[in-house]
## 1
Amino acid sequence: MIAYIKGKVIELGSSKIIIETSGIGYEVFLCENDISKISAGAQTELYISTSFSMYEGEKLYGFLSAEEKEIFELLENFIPNTGAKKAMEYLNKILKSVSDFKKAILNEDEKMLKNLFGFTPKTSKKLIVSLKDKIDGLRISDKERYTSPVFSSYYETALNALIGLGYKSGESRAALAMVMEENTDKNIKIEDVIKLSLKKLSGV
């Protein structure tokens, strides 16, 4: 079973790449968050999880960290009626802040799952019931421990401010997610988060 691949990206698509190593090209599916961090022609390293379905056969799913792979396998194995494709959709949302996702599950915080990650109430309930006894041992990177609590405390306020200015919920969440990823300053103020998000939304 393939667990790890290191090689050159020879083809880059919207949801998958072809990575060449030792003269062999592997088709690997990635979530949008990771696809955006990879360039065609570049060397990359992927942790691999193999999934099989009776309709599509065997597929390789790739992740930029062992932590991402662990989350994916939790989702695929323990969320009812969740195959690999749906697990990747969930993972893409969770990567906004893994530590906040873990916190929301452990605290059974449906509101955070909805407002911060965009999960529906039904999906939020399903995630909590399925993962609350399994997620405590999930590894959290040092970067996650450092950055994510800053934003979770006022995420909803910033989101509502952007929506109040006329922006749609989806695009507001996307802008906030980018600001969260790009800023690691523990002392960043909510006013700055809103200003930076507005720049993202206006394309400045």
## 2
Amino acid sequence: MESIANKILYGAARLLRDSVLPVILSAMPNDVRAARPVLDDTDRAILAVLSADARTPNNAIAEAVGIAPSTCLARIRTLRERGVIRGFHADIDPTALGRGLQAMIAVRLRAHTRERVQEFMRDVPGLPDVVGVWHVAGADDYLLHIAVADSDALRDFVLEHLTTHPAVGHTETSLIFGHLRGAVGATAPVTDQTPIGPLPSER
């Protein structure tokens, strides 16, 4: 009996290693799988200012951080090139666009195959009502943040785009009553990596 149980556990472990994990990793964007960029205190101070207001002028950022404007500009350029700063976006109120109802939809796929994952990622994230998509671990595979006009539009979205989708096996919808944007912790210390040295312009 113990031998049979060990064989079952061994088979399940191999299935997870050889089939499930490769599919999950293949669907992740490259910046998630890549090594975490190493930042020093100056980088983190710049990111903290930009996180509070991405429109802050370069001179004001340099003054707040305590470096020369030219150095600040070079730092920001490097952070963008390294993929630390992925973009600058306007935070738009969906209600102003006629989308007064927001929801988070948990999606469970029918099967964790490469074909199903690619099928879902090809069709769903680009839909007009989708604000964001998270690939998660646990009972569900994806979380969809959507913004629609009303409850009828929410029902139509689920029926037309999810329950009839060949890759989707189960959905669960939660209404969003409110949202608060948290601090990204740009100035929090990192103890498991060595900070980068100064840029050539600072030496």
